[in-house]
Amino acid sequence: MPVVPLKEIVDRAFTERYGVPAINVVNDLTMEAVLAAAVRERSPVIVQTSVKTVRSIGLDLLFAMWRELTAGIEVPVSLHLDHCPDRSVITGCLRQGWNSVLFDASSLPVEENQRQTIEVVAEARGYGANVEGEIESITGVEDGIGSDEVAQTQSLPVAIEFIRATGIDVFAPAIGNAHGVYHAEPKLDAQRVSDIVAEQPIPIALHGGTGMTDAQFTDLIARGCAKVNISTDLKVTFMRANLAYLRTAEEQNKWDPPSLFSSVREAVLEMAAGHMRRFGSAGRAGAGKAR
Ligand code: 13P
After folding, report:
1. Ligand 1 interacting residues, C-beta cut-off 6 A
2. Residue 117 is part of a domain; what is its CATH number?
3. Cβ–Cβ under 8 Å, residues 94 and 129
4. Torsion of CA 284, 193, 232, 85, to 10 degrees
5. Top mutation candidate among 134, 210, 225 for ligand 1, by most atoms within 8 Å of CB
6. Per the domain annotation, does 290 fall within a domain?
7. Distance, CA of 64 to CA of 109 (rounded, Å)
8. Residue 82 bears catalytic tag
9. Average pLDDT for runs of 10 along the chain of length 291
10. Mutate to test the pocket of ligand 1, among 229, 234, 238, 278 (most ligand atoms within 8 A of CB)
11. Which of 57, 205, 214, 241 could form a disulfide with 227 if both were Cys (CB 3.0 to 4.6 A apart)?
12. Non-local CB neighbours of 227 within 8 Å, separated by 6+ positions
């Protein structure tokens, strides 16, 4: 069963310079659709859960869905906990079997963030799991976590020291990216990714993927962004597909939930597959087995 550590997926993507979509799912339907896209596209994929999703569905049920939906899957997949400032949720997810966590202590002073991230890395290693770290909060609120204030950027030496001292597996810098919908094309500091990677070759997580242009993705992935986070696109696709289907159902006075589910699933699957092709992860997983 190729549920694999996050590191296995991102290290290869980093070396071969393609990006792997890390997609926040919100329920069983979206989890299944994202996994089905990976199988169809023969792509690795990272399935992410926000703390909000963990709390709303519950650790046991969410992990049971994951186990069931990945049983027998033949493409590399990994389950990741997105932005989590709460150490008890981190511990719960690691114990349950999540493959990696993003310990988000970006609101703390860097020294305290670094001290605690070292502890989280040691804890994760005990479960064979990986850790993503960050020292600057990514602008925008993601499922109740974060702020719309633009955070202060740390210097390159501080970032490099944090990566070296903590032993994290993936680093998430702030480069002008933001969670949510961009109101204009974002101005990104791509050079910062190159500067970090030149000093310390570590896979970079690109947050705030929704709304970036193809040219931005291509450039940033070539510089070392191996994990490309997508959340808003799934939420919008999911809600719009529901809305479109329900409008038609109302017009026709036809009320069949399974047809609604398959229509929404198709839309989410196509969205995820599009990102796999766009980021170059499609076709990297060898022969896939359709579920
Ligand atoms: P978007 O919501 O902009 O897709 O960003 C997702 C993300 O970075 C999750 O951590």
Report:
1. 24, 82-83, 142, 179-180, 207-210, 229-233
2. 3.20.20.70
3. yes
4. 110
5. 210
6. no
7. 36
8. yes
9. 92 98 98 98 98 98 98 97 98 98 95 98 98 89 76 91 98 93 91 98 97 97 98 98 98 98 98 98 73 44
10. 229
11. 205
12. 6, 10, 13, 19, 20, 22, 46, 132, 170, 203, 204, 205, 206
Q: Which of 11, 28, 82, 214 is catalytic?
A: 82
**Atom 1 (ligand 1): residue with closest C-alpha?**
208
Which helix (H) or strand (E) element contains residue 228? strand 225-230
Domain membership flag for residue 285: no
Number of domains in the chain: 1
Distance CA 185, CA 117 (A): 33
pTM over 0.85: yes
Non-local (6+) Cβ contacts of 161 within 8 A are: 114
Distance CA 126, CA 255 (A): 49
Q: Residue 196 belongs to what domain range?
A: 6-279
Total number of residues shown for the chain? 291
**222 in a domain, yes or no?**
yes
